[in-house]
Design a protein that fits this description.
This is Lipoprotein. With 356 residues, the chain is mostly helical. Helix content is 59%, strand content 2%. The chain contains 12 helices and 2 strands. α2 packs antiparallel against α5 and α5 packs antiparallel against α6. The longest helix is centred in the first third of the chain and has 36 residues. The protein starts with 5 loop residues before the first strand and ends in an 8-residue tail after the last strand.
């Protein structure tokens, strides 16, 4: 995956139209305090609740306990979807990103490994301490979704699902542990947040404010591209016969559209928290207003689409809402990558998620 190349003209974040300086440290500080830290805190809290729910299921199997664990999975997956587009910083250390979500997995590597572990009753896969040493494809949301929603998952409601539940508890524990690690790393006063928020010539990562704000803008531009071109178009074809419903993230748990909605809700929260609107001239405020409206509309459209992916794609009304979601993300890419970038004196270089 090639990263977006962005260049800023000034060491301070200065809108070209107004020349009213806004220090990069203020922009980044607002983003971290207003969104990043709370979002990772929410993820860690929900992940801990998921771990507790799966452990309770293993201790006293029942349909109610299984339903509770499945509901908690949906909550954690949405919490993750809100913050997952921040693909730098502590999440990149120790393969944490891949350990939480190994996707796209076009060759079904994770599925095959999880199925093999279940068939062999691999003791390491069912151990909370040792699973962290297994393949990253077996440690995160994809693995746990199959355990809770995949073939024969109904066994979890009875004693015959004992090993499967132990495996699920280990994965849930790993998700909780990684989530807590990332939360704690962002909360450290001398950690990555301090590095990102204090650019300068002695900074080992961000030599000036331009580079620091570039990182923030990349979340929006690269994130929208990924959500549209990889997440949505990975299963939504140009016409029905080209659809690939089982390529949709969270299709087993029917959480695909909720995740797509949460992706935009996360970007919306980050946009508001960073107060980028305050740096715009009155004449350019329409850009921010359009961004706000379209982020809201796109998320609402995705949230209104419910049901199994196969049924959604076969229903013209629900399919139209997914098409609208794609249109909105394309418009947002223009608003962030061209309009907003232009106001802030940015130039966006080549960006591609899939190739040259």
């Amino acid at each position: 995956m090639k990263s977006l190349a962005l260049a800023l003209a000034f060491s301070l974040f200065i809108p070209a139209a107004t020349q009213a300086a806004m220090p990069a440290s203020d922009v980044i500080g607002q983003a971290v305090e207003g969104f990043v830290r709370p979002a990772y805190g929410d993820l860690a809290e929900h992940a801990a609740a998921l771990e507790t729910a799966v452990e309770a299921l293993c201790k006293t199997p029942s349909q109610d306990a299984l339903d509770s664990a499945r509901a908690e999975f949906g909550q954690v997956a949405q919490s993750w979807s809100k913050v997952e587009l921040i693909m730098f910083g502590p999440i990149r250390e120790g393969n944490r990103l891949e350990r939480l979500l190994f996707w796209p997995d076009r060759k079904s590597i994770g599925l095959k490994q999880v199925q093999a572990a279940l068939a062999a009753k691999d003791p390491d896969a069912a151990d909370a301490d040792r699973i962290a040493g297994k393949s990253v494809a077996m440690q995160g949301f994809g693995a746990l979704e199959y355990v809770l929603f995949g073939t024969d998952s109904g066994q979890l409601a009875g004693s015959e699902g004992a090993y499967r539940c132990s495996f699920g508890a280990a994965v849930a524990g790993n998700i909780a542990a990684v989530s807590a690690e990332v939360r704690d790393a962002w909360n450290r006063t001398d950690g990555f947040a301090a590095i990102w928020g204090s650019p300068g010539p002695d900074n080992p990562v961000y030599r000036n404010g331009s580079e620091a704000v570039t990182e923030l803008m990349g979340v929006f531009i690269n994130g929208l591209e990924m959500v549209r071109d990889v997440r949505l178009r990975g299963f939504l074809g140009s016409r029905p016969e080209k659809d690939k419903p089982k390529q949709a993230l969270y299709w087993r748990s029917q959480g695909t559209t909720a995740s797509l909605a949460a992706n935009l809700e996360g970007l919306h929260g980050l946009f508001r928290a960073s107060h980028l609107t305050d740096a715009l001239s009155p004449e350019a405020r329409w850009i921010a207003e359009s961004i706000e409206i379209q982020l809201t509309n796109g998320a609402e459209a995705a949230r209104s689409v419910q049901g199994p992916v196969e049924e959604v794609l076969a229903d013209p009304a629900r399919r139209e809402k997914l098409d609208y979601y794609g249109t909105v993300t394309s418009s947002l890419s223009n608003l962030f990558g061209v309009r907003l970038s232009g106001e802030f004196g940015l130039t966006a270089g080549f960006s591609s998620l899939d190739g040259d």
